[in-house]
Amino acid sequence: MVQRKEGPASVFVIDDLNRLREVSIPAVLDIADKHGVKIVVLVGLRTSSHQQYDRSNITGDTQSSFDSVELADALDADEWSRLPEYLVKLGIAPDIAAAKQKARAAKGTTNTQDTLALLFFLLPQTRRQIERSVQTEYISLGDTKGLQ
Question: Which among 29, 37, 22 is positioned nearest to 58, based on CA atoms?
Answer without folding.
Answer: 29
